[in-house]
Amino acid sequence: MRRDVFQAIADPTRRAILLLIALQAMTPNAIAGHFDTSRQAVSKHLRILTECQLVKQKHSGREIFYQLNPGKMKEIDKWLEQFRKIWENRFIELDKVLSTLKNN
Amino acid sequence: MRRDVFQAIADPTRRAILLLIALQAMTPNAIAGHFDTSRQAVSKHLRILTECQLVKQKHSGREIFYQLNPGKMKEIDKWLEQFRKIWENRFIELDKVLSTLKNN
DNA sequence: TATATTTGAAACAGATTGGTTTCATAATAA
DNA sequence: TTATTATGAAACCAATCTGTTTCAAATATA
Asked: CB of B68 within 8 Å of any CB in chain A?
């Protein structure tokens, strides 16, 4: 069972769930109401999202509200950051080429 | 066959390949040399990465060099951006709370 | 030309995934 | 208390995924 953030966001329904609960915590039933899948299917998605800590639970009576854990989203951002550095380096190199051309 | 960038980066080997060829274009054989999997397995990963346009091919005789397509990486960045906006909004709201406390 | 190298692709096997059905548990309402 | 509601979890199935084996095609070398 792979349960990392990258595997978690690979599924389009899970990405939609993350966006849905980003602004407001919601119960599994409420979330399921926004999709064509069953409550049980949503529940399984929520389990995966919870296990990799992309969402957090907040119990309230018999209801469970799920909300985004923004901190964990930064793990994806961190991974992307490596590539951003590469792009930036290329831009610096491009700048060098351009200034060399300018001086000649 | 789902072939979007999110499904592509779900596999750890594929993420490692992306990092490996980010700085320098490489052939499938050279890439396979860096991992424990076979050349054929790497070839399949490269096919998936190529199909979703995360990498580009550059033919040179019988060799094929694979290189990162940084532009496509931005699709992931774009998706993350939605959440960054949410975080920023929260920070703005937090600022409001703090300044209200200050004035009282 | 004959041989070796580099690669992609198809066929197959085992593991994983996403969804449904069913059941158990806990909290609320009548 | 009894019935209803909200939820998680287990069993199961079809589809998909990753890796291996095998083969074919194209390019380079002896």
From this structure: yes
Cβ neighbours of B73 in A, within 8 Å: 80, 83
- pLDDT confidence of residue B50: 97
Low-confidence stretches of chain B (pLDDT < 70) are 1-2, 89-104
Low-confidence ranges of chain A (pLDDT < 70): 1-2, 89-104
Q: How far is B17 from chain A (nearest CA, A)?
A: 13
Q: What is the pTM of this model?
A: 0.86
Residues in chain A: 104
Q: What is the dihedral of CA A24, A57, B82, A45, to 10 degrees?
A: -110
Judge contact between B57 and B66, C-beta under 8 A: yes
Sequence-ordered list of residues with C-beta below 8 angstroms from that of B48, at least 6 positions apart, any chain: B3, B8, B14
